[in-house]
Amino acid sequence: MSGCPEVTSLGKGDSLHQQVLASFPLCDMTEEDLTQNPQFCKLLATLAQHVDPTGLTAPLKTELEKAEQKLQSQRCRWLRSESLHTGLQEMIQDHCVRKHHTTLPPDQNMFFETMEKCLLVAQCVRQLDLGDASDQDQPTVLGLTPQHVVDLMPSEKSVQRMRQGLPRQLEKHLKEKCLSFLSYCQPDQENGSEALKTSKLFHLSAQLDKDKKRAESLKASAQENTVLLQRQTQLYLSELTECIRLLQSLVLDHRLKVQTELDKKKLDYFEGKCELVLQKIKTEMVEIQLDTYTPDSIAAHRKIREKLESELKSCKAEKQSVESKLASFEILGKEFEALAEEYCRLRQEMEMKHWALNEFAQYSDK
User: Fold this and answer.
1) How high is the pLDDT of residue 277?
2) Distances (CA, A) of 212 to 18, 189, 203
3) Which range among 66-70, 96-100, 175-179 shows the weakest confidence by mean pLDDT?
4) Ranges assigned E (strand) in 274-338
5) Are 177 and 197 in contact (CB under 8 A)?
6) How would you classify residue 55: left for phi > 0, otherwise alpha for psi between -120 and 50, otherwise beta?
7) Residue 64's Cα: distance from chain center in Å?
8) 0.70 surpassed by pTM
9) CB contact at 8 A, 130 and 138
10) What HEC string does 41-107 produce?
11) What is the pLDDT of residue 3?
């Protein structure tokens, strides 16, 4: 960058950052942004030598000032004519109000009527006058031309008389308005003498200019304070966000450690409680057994158990002998199986016939 040697003369480190931020107060930047982008910081520092804090170059600012001066001149001219016209309208309105409440001299009525007609004619002429248009191409309103309206002007004598008395009446009206404005701006001077009020009027413009400059200074100071407050707010929010992040990490780590300890303590507690419940169950089982089985019943149960075990042993021996016989029968094959089935069938028939004979013998004895 060609402007880098000039940039180094502006300052280094934090001073350069502060100068860049001061040169561009409308930009939403922080020192952290400039620190992370040093080349961009140098570019802004070089650019600050060619533009003002609002972003305008010197030639453009000069042209803007000239345009503002021209606009201010045109505005003053328009305000002068507009205030004069408004003052005349107010004088006519005040006259109409006074005329309805009191009887006014004829010459005064003639003065205000002539002034009102002149104002109406001037307004109509201004509305009908279309500027540089030629007479052939100039459109008309209801076939009227400015000359038709000018013919409605009062007599030259009445207009001349009105013009002679107009400055005095206008000065009187403006003085009353100024005194009213003075009473509004300085209520403590409302009951003062006429000479004191007149003296205060001469200093009212300077006082208003002073108040205006003071208000503009306060406004500029308020804007600077607003920009400074916005920067401080951004820094505060960034620092607060970082603090919240650190606090969250600390809380999370502490919570994990504490949670591990709590889980271990809860596990020990539940293990102890489970062991206690098991011991209680065993105790209840022993108490139930003691309440249910007496020494005599235990001895009887032992005898019954011994008898059942002996019978079970004999049954197992019988089962083993039967299984060995079956195994020997299975060796003989399918023919023996058919003979065995036939033997079973004949045995069942014999048992049935034996039972029938017994029954028949019982009925025969009867």
Assistant:
1) 92
2) 31, 21, 14
3) 175-179
4) none
5) no
6) left
7) 38
8) no
9) yes
10) HHHHHHHCCCECCCCCEHHHHHHHHHHHHHHHHHHHHHHHHHHHHHHHHHHHHHHHHHHHHCCCCHH
11) 39
